[in-house]
């Protein structure tokens, strides 16, 4: 097969889907890889690096797409890029089908066989393909560093000739992969860390990293859905969350919020009143900004300052560390492509597979949307929901 890797077109996206080592792995399996010129520059990989790994370096996206049996990207096709995809081509990318079901419908109409990397099931044998977890690890680390830099004070306890300075207080809201990495990073920096999550099952992980744990006394299963993701709570339960968080937020020097609901708007857990109670110089790093944000005052893509409190709405934290994130992304992608090839990608029989990973990630095939959750989302949209 001929795998094509174009430059990412979304503004601010600095990752690349395959690094030279990933190209080398696919070429070693007997496949061809084409890379668009300068696709890997931001991630530290030159065109010469790709050529040395066995890739064709192609200047124009039109030429690259014209050769492709499969197109491998980080983000979904943007703008006129979709029109370059030929019928019958395989597309592998972060398609976010629950958040953008209309894109899935368009890809189906073009005759594209699309696989979404953010739909990899969270099962043991798919861990090495789990792009979301890899990117959350990078994002949690980078967001923790951003909070430490912006808060303007020491993180560890400092004993100086001028006196003792107490450690910074950090609150992490959401103890998923990103939150746990943020906890670990802030603890390494010497901060006193408290973490909140509605899922009691995360307590052991939080406490093993040296943070104290906050949660709501919810019945088992209420806060968690299949795959371990957080479930959106009822409005009265979200109100209880805000009540519980009010005092820890007020006392914090840095708050890092990571609460997301797959395919939905992020829950607003920090109100304007809670921000007003924070001390000037405190920082909120809102990792949920791409989904609207966990604070009422987050401006996605911008840094806001309200009453002296910095609210960082940076989008796409993994792209802030393109070298590390591209290497992890590439490893996940190569493992995923190998699985698809073993399941019949080259001869087109992959769509008939009953494998859980294939079925979970296959979004469109044969001119139709075939992904169950995406079909449900399209039906709700059609019904005006």
Characterise this structure.
The structure is a single chain. Helix 5 (about 130-150) runs parallel beside helix 6. The longest helix has 21 residues, at about 320-340. The chain is built from twelve helices and 17 strands. With about 375 residues, it is α/β, with parallel strands linked by helices. Helices cover about 35% and strands about 20% of the residues. It has helices spanning about 20-30, 45-50, 60-65, 100-110, 130-150, 175-190, 205-210, 235-250, 270-275, 320-340, 355-360, 370-380, and strands at about 1-5, 30-35, 55-60, 70-75, 90-95, 115, 160, 165, 170-175, 190-195, 210-215, 255, 285, 305, 310, 360-365, 370. It has two domains: about 1-110 and about 320-380, Rossmann fold (3-Layer(aba) Sandwich); about 140-320, Rossmann fold (3-Layer(aba) Sandwich). The radius of gyration is 22 Å and the shape is globular. The strands form three sheets. Strands 3-2-1-4-5-6-16-17 form an eight-stranded mixed beta sheet, with helices on both faces. A seven-stranded mixed beta sheet has the order 11-10-9-12-13-15-14, sandwiched between helices. Strands 7-8 form a two-stranded antiparallel sheet.
């Amino acid at each position: 097969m001929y795998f094509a890797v174009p430059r990412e077109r979304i503004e601010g996206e600095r990752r690349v889907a395959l690094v030279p080592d990933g190209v080398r792995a696919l070429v070693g399996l007997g496949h061809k890889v084409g890379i668009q010129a300068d696709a890997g520059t931001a991630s530290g990989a030159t065109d010469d690096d790709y050529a040395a790994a066995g890739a064709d370096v192609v200047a124009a996206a039109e030429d690259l797409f014209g050769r492709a049996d499969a197109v491998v990207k980080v983000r979904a096709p943007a703008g006129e890029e979709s029109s370059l995809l030929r019928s019958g081509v395989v597309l592998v990318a972060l398609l976010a089908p629950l958040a953008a079901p209309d894109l899935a419908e368009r890809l189906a109409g073009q005759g594209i066989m699309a696989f979404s990397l953010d739909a990899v099931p969270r099962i043991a044998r798919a861990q090495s393909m789990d792009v979301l977890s890899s990117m959350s690890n990078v994002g949690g680390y980078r967001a923790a560093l951003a909070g430490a830099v912006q808060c303007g004070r020491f993180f560890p306890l400092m004993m100086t000739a001028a006196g003792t300075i107490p450690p910074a207080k950090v609150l992490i809201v959401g103890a998923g992969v990103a939150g746990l990495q943020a906890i670990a990073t802030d603890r390494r920096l010497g901060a006193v860390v408290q973490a909140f999550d509605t899922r009691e099952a995360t307590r052991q992980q939080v406490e093993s990293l040296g943070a104290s744990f906050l949660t709501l006394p919810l019945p088992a299963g209420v806060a968690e859905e299949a795959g371990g993701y957080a479930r959106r709570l009822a409005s009265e339960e979200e109100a209880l969350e805000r009540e519980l968080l009010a005092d820890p937020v007020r006392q914090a020097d840095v708050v890092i919020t990571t609460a997301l609901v797959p395919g939905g708007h992020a829950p607003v857990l920090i109100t304007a009143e809670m921000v007003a109670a924070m001390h000037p110089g405190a920082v909120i790093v809102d990792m949920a900004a791409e989904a609207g944000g966990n604070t009422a005052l987050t401006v996605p893509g911008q840094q806001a300052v309200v009453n002296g409190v910095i609210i960082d709405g940076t989008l796409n934290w993994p792209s802030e560390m393109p070298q590390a994130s591209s290497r992890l992304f590439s490893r996940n992608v190569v493992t995923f492509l190998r699985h698809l090839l073993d399941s019949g990608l080259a001869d087109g029989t992959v769509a008939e597979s009953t494998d859980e990973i294939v079925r979970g990630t296959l979004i469109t095939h044969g001119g139709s949307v075939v992904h169950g959750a995406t079909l449900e989302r399209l039906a709700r949209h059609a019904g005006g929901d």
